[in-house]
Sequence to fold (387 residues):
Amino acid sequence: MGRPEKIFYAVILRSSRSTRKMRISLGLLRSDVMLETKCKNNPRAYSSWKQVEVNTIASGFGHLGPASKAVQSFVMRELGHADKIKNMPDNNALSGICDGMIKSWELYGNPGAVILFIVEVITYNICDQRFHEFYIRDQCPKVQVLRRTLTQVFKEGKLGSNKELLLGEHEVAVIYFRAGYEPAHYPSQDEWDARYMMECSRAIKCPSIHYHLAGTKKVQQALAQPAMLERFLNDPEQVKTVKEIFTGLYALDDTEAGNAAYEMALQEPERFVLKPQREGGGNNIYGVDIPDALRKMNRVERAAWILMDLIQPPISKGYMIRPDNKYAPELVDLVSELGIFGVIIGDVDNIICNYQAGHMLRTKLSTANEGGVAAGLGALDSPYLLD
Ligand SMILES: Nc1ncnc2c1ncn2[C@@H]1O[C@H](COP(=O)(O)OP(=O)(O)OP(=O)(O)O)[C@@H](O)[C@H]1O
Ligand SMILES: [Mg+2]
Fold:
Protein backbone atom coordinates (compact mmCIF):
# COMPACT_ATOMS: atom_id res chain seq x y z
CA MET A 1 0.00 0.00 0.00
CA GLY A 2 1.47 3.38 -0.97
CA ARG A 3 1.86 6.22 1.52
CA PRO A 4 -1.39 8.13 0.76
CA GLU A 5 -3.43 4.97 1.20
CA LYS A 6 -1.66 4.24 4.50
CA ILE A 7 -2.57 7.68 5.82
CA PHE A 8 -6.09 7.25 4.50
CA TYR A 9 -6.66 4.07 6.46
CA ALA A 10 -4.98 5.44 9.58
CA VAL A 11 -7.30 8.43 9.57
CA ILE A 12 -10.45 6.54 8.86
CA LEU A 13 -9.70 3.94 11.50
CA ARG A 14 -8.99 6.67 14.05
CA SER A 15 -12.32 8.34 13.34
CA SER A 16 -14.05 4.97 13.25
CA ARG A 17 -13.00 4.39 16.85
CA SER A 18 -14.18 7.82 17.89
CA THR A 19 -17.66 7.31 16.43
CA ARG A 20 -18.17 3.88 17.90
CA LYS A 21 -21.32 5.10 19.62
CA MET A 22 -22.91 4.89 16.19
CA ARG A 23 -25.57 7.21 15.06
CA ILE A 24 -27.60 6.77 11.89
CA SER A 25 -25.72 6.07 8.63
CA LEU A 26 -27.01 6.43 5.11
CA GLY A 27 -25.81 3.99 2.47
CA LEU A 28 -26.43 4.79 -1.20
CA LEU A 29 -24.94 1.66 -2.67
CA ARG A 30 -24.42 0.38 -6.17
CA SER A 31 -23.86 -3.33 -6.67
CA ASP A 32 -22.19 -3.89 -10.05
CA VAL A 33 -22.84 -7.25 -11.67
CA MET A 34 -22.11 -8.95 -14.97
CA LEU A 35 -23.70 -11.96 -16.58
CA GLU A 36 -21.17 -14.73 -16.72
CA THR A 37 -21.23 -17.07 -19.67
CA LYS A 38 -19.33 -20.04 -20.91
CA CYS A 39 -20.27 -19.21 -24.51
CA LYS A 40 -19.28 -15.60 -25.14
CA ASN A 41 -20.86 -15.20 -28.56
CA ASN A 42 -24.33 -16.25 -27.55
CA PRO A 43 -25.87 -13.56 -25.35
CA ARG A 44 -28.58 -15.98 -24.24
CA ALA A 45 -26.16 -18.72 -23.13
CA TYR A 46 -25.35 -17.15 -19.78
CA SER A 47 -25.05 -19.09 -16.59
CA SER A 48 -25.39 -16.63 -13.71
CA TRP A 49 -24.94 -13.10 -12.42
CA LYS A 50 -21.59 -12.40 -10.78
CA GLN A 51 -20.75 -9.38 -8.69
CA VAL A 52 -17.92 -7.12 -9.81
CA GLU A 53 -18.04 -5.06 -6.61
CA VAL A 54 -20.26 -3.02 -4.32
CA ASN A 55 -19.74 0.74 -4.30
CA THR A 56 -20.48 2.40 -0.99
CA ILE A 57 -19.21 5.90 -1.79
CA ALA A 58 -20.08 8.30 -4.62
CA SER A 59 -22.10 5.68 -6.52
CA GLY A 60 -22.65 7.51 -9.80
CA PHE A 61 -25.18 7.53 -12.66
CA GLY A 62 -28.35 7.78 -10.56
CA HIS A 63 -29.59 10.38 -13.02
CA LEU A 64 -28.01 9.19 -16.26
CA GLY A 65 -29.31 5.62 -15.72
CA PRO A 66 -32.97 6.71 -15.98
CA ALA A 67 -32.04 9.36 -18.59
CA SER A 68 -30.63 6.61 -20.83
CA LYS A 69 -33.97 4.87 -20.83
CA ALA A 70 -35.68 8.11 -21.83
CA VAL A 71 -33.20 8.67 -24.69
CA GLN A 72 -33.40 5.10 -25.93
CA SER A 73 -37.21 5.09 -25.71
CA PHE A 74 -37.23 8.19 -27.90
CA VAL A 75 -34.93 6.53 -30.44
CA MET A 76 -37.05 3.39 -30.51
CA ARG A 77 -40.20 5.43 -31.03
CA GLU A 78 -38.56 7.37 -33.85
CA LEU A 79 -37.50 4.11 -35.49
CA GLY A 80 -41.04 2.74 -35.33
CA HIS A 81 -40.45 0.32 -32.44
CA ALA A 82 -42.62 1.98 -29.80
CA ASP A 83 -44.22 -1.40 -29.03
CA LYS A 84 -40.87 -2.66 -27.68
CA ILE A 85 -40.34 0.11 -25.11
CA LYS A 86 -42.26 -1.98 -22.58
CA ASN A 87 -39.31 -4.41 -22.55
CA MET A 88 -37.12 -1.79 -20.90
CA PRO A 89 -37.80 -1.92 -17.14
CA ASP A 90 -38.81 1.20 -15.22
CA ASN A 91 -35.90 2.93 -13.58
CA ASN A 92 -36.47 5.02 -10.47
CA ALA A 93 -32.81 5.42 -9.53
CA LEU A 94 -32.72 9.19 -9.08
CA SER A 95 -35.87 9.42 -6.98
CA GLY A 96 -34.94 6.32 -4.96
CA ILE A 97 -31.50 7.68 -4.11
CA CYS A 98 -32.66 11.21 -3.35
CA ASP A 99 -35.62 10.02 -1.27
CA GLY A 100 -32.99 8.26 0.88
CA MET A 101 -31.25 11.58 1.43
CA ILE A 102 -34.54 13.35 2.21
CA LYS A 103 -35.54 10.60 4.65
CA SER A 104 -32.17 10.95 6.40
CA TRP A 105 -32.65 14.71 6.57
CA GLU A 106 -36.04 14.13 8.25
CA LEU A 107 -34.49 11.68 10.71
CA TYR A 108 -31.88 14.24 11.71
CA GLY A 109 -34.74 16.28 13.06
CA ASN A 110 -33.77 19.91 12.49
CA PRO A 111 -36.00 21.54 9.84
CA GLY A 112 -33.45 24.35 9.42
CA ALA A 113 -30.52 22.06 8.65
CA VAL A 114 -29.10 21.51 5.15
CA ILE A 115 -27.84 18.63 3.01
CA LEU A 116 -24.15 19.03 2.14
CA PHE A 117 -22.67 17.54 -1.04
CA ILE A 118 -18.90 17.05 -0.82
CA VAL A 119 -17.64 17.64 -4.34
CA GLU A 120 -14.36 17.60 -6.23
CA VAL A 121 -12.66 20.85 -7.23
CA ILE A 122 -13.72 20.07 -10.81
CA THR A 123 -16.73 17.79 -11.00
CA TYR A 124 -16.43 15.90 -14.26
CA ASN A 125 -19.70 14.06 -13.79
CA ILE A 126 -21.64 17.22 -12.97
CA CYS A 127 -24.31 16.27 -15.55
CA ASP A 128 -25.19 13.29 -13.39
CA GLN A 129 -24.56 14.70 -9.97
CA ARG A 130 -26.44 18.00 -10.08
CA PHE A 131 -29.73 16.28 -10.86
CA HIS A 132 -29.71 14.85 -7.33
CA GLU A 133 -29.71 18.38 -6.02
CA PHE A 134 -32.41 19.47 -8.48
CA TYR A 135 -34.64 16.53 -7.44
CA ILE A 136 -34.27 17.30 -3.75
CA ARG A 137 -35.02 21.00 -4.28
CA ASP A 138 -38.00 20.16 -6.49
CA GLN A 139 -39.53 17.58 -4.15
CA CYS A 140 -38.68 19.27 -0.91
CA PRO A 141 -38.01 23.01 -1.44
CA LYS A 142 -37.50 23.59 2.28
CA VAL A 143 -34.33 21.46 2.16
CA GLN A 144 -31.34 23.53 1.15
CA VAL A 145 -28.46 21.79 -0.62
CA LEU A 146 -24.90 23.12 -0.31
CA ARG A 147 -21.94 21.99 -2.43
CA ARG A 148 -18.48 22.26 -0.88
CA THR A 149 -15.04 20.79 -1.47
CA LEU A 150 -13.14 19.20 1.42
CA THR A 151 -10.88 22.27 1.45
CA GLN A 152 -13.88 24.60 1.81
CA VAL A 153 -15.26 22.51 4.67
CA PHE A 154 -11.89 22.82 6.40
CA LYS A 155 -12.01 26.61 6.03
CA GLU A 156 -15.69 27.21 6.82
CA GLY A 157 -16.61 24.32 9.09
CA LYS A 158 -16.59 23.75 12.82
CA LEU A 159 -18.27 21.52 15.37
CA GLY A 160 -20.93 22.97 17.69
CA SER A 161 -21.22 22.18 21.37
CA ASN A 162 -23.39 19.16 20.59
CA LYS A 163 -21.15 17.96 17.73
CA GLU A 164 -23.34 19.63 15.10
CA LEU A 165 -21.45 20.29 11.89
CA LEU A 166 -21.71 24.04 11.27
CA LEU A 167 -20.86 25.71 7.96
CA GLY A 168 -21.22 29.42 8.49
CA GLU A 169 -24.79 29.88 9.71
CA HIS A 170 -25.88 26.47 8.42
CA GLU A 171 -26.18 23.29 10.46
CA VAL A 172 -25.61 20.19 8.33
CA ALA A 173 -28.07 17.29 8.63
CA VAL A 174 -26.73 14.98 5.91
CA ILE A 175 -23.30 14.79 4.26
CA TYR A 176 -23.28 13.17 0.83
CA PHE A 177 -19.73 12.36 -0.27
CA ARG A 178 -19.30 12.61 -4.03
CA ALA A 179 -15.59 13.11 -3.39
CA GLY A 180 -13.19 11.87 -0.75
CA TYR A 181 -12.69 8.35 -2.11
CA GLU A 182 -9.18 8.70 -3.44
CA PRO A 183 -5.90 10.06 -2.08
CA ALA A 184 -5.77 12.90 -4.66
CA HIS A 185 -8.90 14.34 -3.03
CA TYR A 186 -6.74 15.03 0.04
CA PRO A 187 -3.92 17.26 -1.27
CA SER A 188 -2.99 18.46 2.23
CA GLN A 189 -3.66 17.78 5.90
CA ASP A 190 -6.55 20.28 5.73
CA GLU A 191 -8.73 17.88 3.75
CA TRP A 192 -7.97 15.02 6.16
CA ASP A 193 -8.89 17.28 9.07
CA ALA A 194 -12.14 18.24 7.33
CA ARG A 195 -13.01 14.58 6.81
CA TYR A 196 -12.20 13.79 10.42
CA MET A 197 -14.32 16.69 11.66
CA MET A 198 -17.28 15.55 9.54
CA GLU A 199 -16.90 11.98 10.72
CA CYS A 200 -16.90 13.12 14.36
CA SER A 201 -19.98 15.29 13.81
CA ARG A 202 -23.54 14.22 14.47
CA ALA A 203 -24.52 14.81 10.81
CA ILE A 204 -25.72 11.67 9.00
CA LYS A 205 -22.90 10.61 6.70
CA CYS A 206 -23.29 8.97 3.30
CA PRO A 207 -21.21 6.98 3.70
CA SER A 208 -20.17 6.81 7.33
CA ILE A 209 -16.61 5.63 7.64
CA HIS A 210 -17.92 2.16 8.44
CA TYR A 211 -19.81 1.94 5.16
CA HIS A 212 -16.86 3.46 3.32
CA LEU A 213 -14.57 0.73 4.66
CA ALA A 214 -17.15 -1.96 3.86
CA GLY A 215 -16.83 -0.94 0.21
CA THR A 216 -13.13 -1.71 0.00
CA LYS A 217 -12.12 -4.60 -2.20
CA LYS A 218 -10.46 -6.23 0.82
CA VAL A 219 -13.67 -6.33 2.86
CA GLN A 220 -15.59 -7.67 -0.14
CA GLN A 221 -12.96 -10.40 -0.60
CA ALA A 222 -13.16 -11.25 3.11
CA LEU A 223 -16.98 -11.43 2.96
CA ALA A 224 -16.78 -14.04 0.22
CA GLN A 225 -14.73 -16.42 2.40
CA PRO A 226 -16.36 -19.59 3.73
CA ALA A 227 -18.51 -19.14 6.86
CA MET A 228 -18.23 -15.34 6.70
CA LEU A 229 -21.76 -14.59 5.43
CA GLU A 230 -23.18 -16.79 8.16
CA ARG A 231 -21.94 -14.22 10.67
CA PHE A 232 -24.36 -11.69 9.20
CA LEU A 233 -27.24 -13.72 7.74
CA ASN A 234 -29.25 -16.31 9.69
CA ASP A 235 -31.25 -17.86 6.87
CA PRO A 236 -29.19 -20.61 5.10
CA GLU A 237 -31.19 -20.06 1.88
CA GLN A 238 -30.25 -16.38 1.92
CA VAL A 239 -26.60 -17.27 2.52
CA LYS A 240 -26.71 -19.63 -0.46
CA THR A 241 -28.31 -17.03 -2.74
CA VAL A 242 -25.85 -14.30 -1.78
CA LYS A 243 -22.89 -16.66 -2.14
CA GLU A 244 -23.88 -17.54 -5.68
CA ILE A 245 -23.22 -14.00 -6.79
CA PHE A 246 -19.58 -14.05 -5.66
CA THR A 247 -16.93 -15.05 -8.12
CA GLY A 248 -13.53 -16.26 -6.90
CA LEU A 249 -11.94 -13.63 -4.62
CA TYR A 250 -8.54 -14.34 -3.09
CA ALA A 251 -6.33 -12.68 -0.49
CA LEU A 252 -2.67 -12.25 -1.42
CA ASP A 253 -1.29 -11.96 2.10
CA ASP A 254 1.65 -13.93 3.41
CA THR A 255 -0.33 -17.00 4.49
CA GLU A 256 -0.58 -20.45 2.97
CA ALA A 257 -3.75 -19.50 1.09
CA GLY A 258 -2.35 -16.11 0.08
CA ASN A 259 0.85 -17.57 -1.26
CA ALA A 260 -1.11 -20.24 -3.17
CA ALA A 261 -3.20 -17.48 -4.76
CA TYR A 262 0.00 -15.63 -5.66
CA GLU A 263 1.36 -18.74 -7.43
CA MET A 264 -1.97 -19.27 -9.19
CA ALA A 265 -1.87 -15.68 -10.50
CA LEU A 266 1.64 -16.22 -11.87
CA GLN A 267 0.68 -19.51 -13.53
CA GLU A 268 -2.58 -18.45 -15.21
CA PRO A 269 -2.77 -14.64 -15.10
CA GLU A 270 -5.29 -14.42 -17.93
CA ARG A 271 -7.94 -15.85 -15.57
CA PHE A 272 -7.68 -12.91 -13.14
CA VAL A 273 -7.84 -9.23 -12.32
CA LEU A 274 -5.66 -7.74 -9.58
CA LYS A 275 -7.27 -4.97 -7.50
CA PRO A 276 -5.89 -2.43 -5.03
CA GLN A 277 -7.94 -0.67 -2.34
CA ARG A 278 -8.97 2.09 -4.68
CA GLU A 279 -12.13 3.57 -6.19
CA GLY A 280 -12.88 5.55 -9.29
CA GLY A 281 -11.62 3.19 -11.99
CA GLY A 282 -8.31 2.83 -13.79
CA ASN A 283 -6.40 1.20 -10.92
CA ASN A 284 -6.83 -2.52 -11.62
CA ILE A 285 -4.28 -4.74 -13.36
CA TYR A 286 -5.57 -7.32 -15.83
CA GLY A 287 -4.45 -10.70 -17.16
CA VAL A 288 -0.96 -10.91 -18.60
CA ASP A 289 0.13 -7.69 -16.84
CA ILE A 290 -0.39 -9.31 -13.44
CA PRO A 291 2.88 -11.33 -13.05
CA ASP A 292 5.16 -8.34 -13.63
CA ALA A 293 3.14 -6.20 -11.24
CA LEU A 294 3.14 -8.88 -8.55
CA ARG A 295 6.86 -9.58 -8.87
CA LYS A 296 7.59 -5.90 -8.20
CA MET A 297 5.78 -6.04 -4.84
CA ASN A 298 7.14 -7.36 -1.58
CA ARG A 299 4.97 -9.61 0.58
CA VAL A 300 3.61 -6.72 2.64
CA GLU A 301 2.68 -4.64 -0.39
CA ARG A 302 1.06 -7.63 -2.05
CA ALA A 303 -1.30 -8.06 0.93
CA ALA A 304 -2.88 -4.69 0.08
CA TRP A 305 -4.22 -6.14 -3.19
CA ILE A 306 -6.81 -8.81 -3.89
CA LEU A 307 -7.03 -11.24 -6.77
CA MET A 308 -10.35 -11.86 -8.48
CA ASP A 309 -11.58 -14.25 -11.17
CA LEU A 310 -12.25 -12.40 -14.41
CA ILE A 311 -15.94 -12.58 -15.24
CA GLN A 312 -16.63 -13.45 -18.90
CA PRO A 313 -19.81 -11.62 -19.95
CA PRO A 314 -21.67 -12.51 -23.14
CA ILE A 315 -20.86 -10.44 -26.22
CA SER A 316 -23.60 -8.67 -28.12
CA LYS A 317 -23.41 -6.49 -31.21
CA GLY A 318 -24.43 -2.86 -31.20
CA TYR A 319 -23.67 0.75 -32.01
CA MET A 320 -22.10 3.00 -29.44
CA ILE A 321 -22.87 6.71 -29.82
CA ARG A 322 -20.17 8.86 -28.29
CA PRO A 323 -19.40 12.57 -28.58
CA ASP A 324 -16.03 11.75 -30.13
CA ASN A 325 -17.52 9.68 -32.99
CA LYS A 326 -16.03 11.35 -36.09
CA TYR A 327 -17.87 9.10 -38.51
CA ALA A 328 -21.10 7.15 -38.41
CA PRO A 329 -20.89 4.65 -35.51
CA GLU A 330 -19.85 1.14 -36.51
CA LEU A 331 -21.37 -2.16 -35.46
CA VAL A 332 -19.05 -3.41 -32.70
CA ASP A 333 -18.74 -6.22 -30.14
CA LEU A 334 -19.98 -5.09 -26.74
CA VAL A 335 -20.30 -6.32 -23.16
CA SER A 336 -22.49 -4.86 -20.43
CA GLU A 337 -22.34 -4.33 -16.69
CA LEU A 338 -25.45 -3.67 -14.62
CA GLY A 339 -25.39 -1.53 -11.49
CA ILE A 340 -28.26 -2.00 -9.02
CA PHE A 341 -28.73 0.89 -6.61
CA GLY A 342 -29.75 0.26 -3.02
CA VAL A 343 -30.61 2.56 -0.16
CA ILE A 344 -30.03 1.60 3.45
CA ILE A 345 -30.54 3.76 6.51
CA GLY A 346 -29.84 2.42 9.95
CA ASP A 347 -27.81 2.46 13.12
CA VAL A 348 -25.93 -0.24 14.93
CA ASP A 349 -29.17 -1.89 16.13
CA ASN A 350 -31.88 -1.01 13.62
CA ILE A 351 -32.47 -0.90 9.90
CA ILE A 352 -34.84 1.98 9.22
CA CYS A 353 -34.98 1.70 5.40
CA ASN A 354 -33.57 -0.90 3.04
CA TYR A 355 -34.76 -0.88 -0.56
CA GLN A 356 -33.67 -1.37 -4.14
CA ALA A 357 -33.56 1.92 -6.04
CA GLY A 358 -33.29 1.43 -9.76
CA HIS A 359 -30.31 0.68 -11.93
CA MET A 360 -27.79 1.84 -14.50
CA LEU A 361 -26.28 -0.15 -17.33
CA ARG A 362 -22.85 0.48 -18.83
CA THR A 363 -21.92 -1.07 -22.14
CA LYS A 364 -18.35 -1.09 -23.40
CA LEU A 365 -16.24 -2.51 -26.18
CA SER A 366 -15.71 -6.22 -25.54
CA THR A 367 -11.96 -5.62 -25.70
CA ALA A 368 -11.97 -2.96 -22.95
CA ASN A 369 -10.98 -3.97 -19.44
CA GLU A 370 -12.57 -1.19 -17.40
CA GLY A 371 -16.10 0.30 -17.48
CA GLY A 372 -14.68 3.38 -19.12
CA VAL A 373 -17.65 5.73 -19.78
CA ALA A 374 -15.47 8.70 -18.78
CA ALA A 375 -12.36 7.12 -20.29
CA GLY A 376 -14.09 6.86 -23.67
CA LEU A 377 -14.53 3.11 -24.11
CA GLY A 378 -18.05 2.73 -22.82
CA ALA A 379 -21.48 4.31 -22.90
CA LEU A 380 -24.61 4.41 -20.81
CA ASP A 381 -27.26 1.95 -21.85
CA SER A 382 -30.59 0.41 -20.78
CA PRO A 383 -31.50 -3.21 -20.11
CA TYR A 384 -33.86 -4.82 -22.61
CA LEU A 385 -35.65 -7.85 -21.18
CA LEU A 386 -36.11 -11.02 -23.24
CA ASP A 387 -38.31 -14.04 -22.45
N1 LIG B 1 -13.74 -9.64 -11.95
C1 LIG B 1 -13.94 -8.87 -13.01
N2 LIG B 1 -14.26 -9.43 -14.20
C2 LIG B 1 -14.47 -8.67 -15.31
N3 LIG B 1 -14.36 -7.32 -15.33
C3 LIG B 1 -14.05 -6.72 -14.16
C4 LIG B 1 -13.82 -7.45 -12.95
N4 LIG B 1 -13.52 -6.58 -11.98
C5 LIG B 1 -13.55 -5.35 -12.54
N5 LIG B 1 -13.86 -5.42 -13.85
C6 LIG B 1 -14.02 -4.27 -14.78
O1 LIG B 1 -13.26 -3.19 -14.31
C7 LIG B 1 -14.11 -2.11 -13.93
C8 LIG B 1 -13.53 -1.43 -12.70
O2 LIG B 1 -13.42 -2.37 -11.64
P1 LIG B 1 -13.95 -2.04 -10.18
O3 LIG B 1 -15.38 -1.69 -10.29
O4 LIG B 1 -13.61 -3.17 -9.30
O5 LIG B 1 -13.01 -0.78 -9.83
P2 LIG B 1 -13.38 0.65 -9.25
O6 LIG B 1 -12.12 1.41 -9.23
O7 LIG B 1 -14.11 0.46 -7.97
O8 LIG B 1 -14.36 1.24 -10.36
P3 LIG B 1 -15.68 2.16 -10.25
O9 LIG B 1 -15.22 3.55 -10.46
O10 LIG B 1 -16.55 1.67 -11.38
O11 LIG B 1 -16.31 1.94 -8.93
C9 LIG B 1 -15.48 -2.72 -13.71
O12 LIG B 1 -16.50 -1.77 -13.93
C10 LIG B 1 -15.49 -3.83 -14.75
O13 LIG B 1 -15.82 -3.32 -16.04
MG1 LIG C 1 -15.99 1.02 -7.32
